[in-house]
Write a structure and sequence with these properties.
- The protein has 71 residues and is of the alpha+beta class.
- The protein has one domain.
- Helix content is 48%, strand content 20%.
- It has one helix and four strands.
Length: 71
């Protein structure tokens, strides 16, 4: 537990963390505040993985096409 003092006011701050997607305050054991945020995170991870794979495939295609003389 932490205390924050602002002027004459002392506020108790309970242990917490913030939702990975929206930043809402949640209990320390959780990563997301709702199923909606969890789904958004998983969808973003899948999209990022697909973009990375597409980039690798494109890089290999460009690399090997230059070796084979294809233009």
């Amino acid at each position: 537990m932490m205390y924050l003092q602002s002027g004459d006011l002392m506020v108790k701050i309970l242990p917490h963390r913030h939702c990975t997607m929206c930043g809402k305050s949640i209990v320390p054991e959780e990563m997301f505040c709702s199923d909606k945020c969890k789904k958004q995170y998983n969808d973003a991870q899948k999209r990022q993985k697909l973009i990375f794979i597409a980039f690798i495939v494109l890089a290999f295609f460009l690399l090997f096409s230059s070796f084979l003389g294809l233009k």
